[in-house]
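Why does residue order matter? Because the sequence determines the fold. Keep that principle in mind as you read this record.
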Amino acid sequence: CYDGYSYKIAYGLSDENLDDTLEVPPFSCSYDIAGLSEYTTYFVSVYCIPDNGYPPLYYLCSSEVPLSKPRRPEGFTASPDLFSIHLEWLPNRELDISHYKILRKTDGEEWTAIQDNLIDTHFADANVTAGQEYYYRLLAIDNDMIESDTSLEAMSFSATFASGILLVDETRGGDNWPTELEQYQYYAAAFGDSSFARMTLDSGEALKRSLAGQYMPIFYVDDDNSQNLLEGSLDSLDWYLQYETDFFLAGWRTIFAITGQTSFYPGNFFRDNLGLASIAENVLSDFDGATGVNGWPDLEVRNDTYYHAPLPNIDIFTAVPGAEVICTFNSRSGNPFYGNKPVGVAYDTHHGKRVVLGFPLYYLTESSAQALIARVFEYFGEESVLYGDVNGDWAVNILDITYLINYLYKGGPPPPDPNNGDPNGSCNVNILDVTYLIGYLYKSGPAPLEGCVE
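Structure:
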């Protein structure tokens, strides 16, 4: 509102016939139109006239439907969280909403109100049982205690990561691809004595958080090169990998189909979560297998399937600092551009471990697949240590330097792991360790070493 202007409201039953007008009281910037008919659409415009000027040439028009009870809430979702279920919704547009009510039930139960005086637009339901599916509905209630209709139903499980291994299998079945039975038999042999739950993905489907949150680790395999569905599951996986979880990804053009040849920068899913700095692809039929690095097994491609050695369309990686190359490309042709380049990376994020392969699992010999999966389980079971993490927060940064100085000179607490207070590996904790961390963080010095205080 502006001083020196008078305001009027014009409204009616169409935007071309605003037959009724109301004068807005001076110095007021809002107005409630009373006496309207419920369930009727009204078109409304506000216009102003300066004291010494002319009325506007045209009006901007909006519309609304008056109701005696609140509209049902929109955007209602239920998402898994650790040992709880997170509910969220959009705020109702009515100005007289007092609060919200949440209803919950499980299969075979009646709807019960678990919260009936919420003023926020989110709620964490921590009174849940692991493995139990919960259904939710939401109502909005106005100042006269009139309830809206219930929202659309939302459902979820809480996240426990306690149900063992989940194999997400999006490999096509039939035609020139292995049947679903052949896939299952192959993966069962590869996993040996380790049991797993298997989920198959078809076109248009994606891994949901409510399912992912039940399992740890997750093995995701995409062993065909013409139907790559990983992109639809990235949101759920990005959520999953925020927790203390382990994850394995193998596939045929699985990442390249999403990104193409590119470098990955901080903030990118594949860099932050999988330890990849860049990706390229060898489109030629040239992949005979992979040579294992640092104790990882050598791998051989099968010759008894429709797609056999050598394989085309293999992804080539470079790893970020701190990630480990675990296998390299065996080129049948001896192509130096791709031969011996990384095709497998392991990445210890210190809140879980990741293994990513640029080739399909199914087309490895059974003995190769068994050796690989056994090594993956061994890797997932190894203790995760971040050298130089003096304060124990799973990061190496200025806070570790401050923590060490406080411990050495200001009576602060000792490092939770004494060996991590010895980043120069001298078997003593002293000012030289502070200098070493400063050099590493700010002067391109060597990475912290394994301490030997204890």
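The chain has a mean pLDDT of 93.
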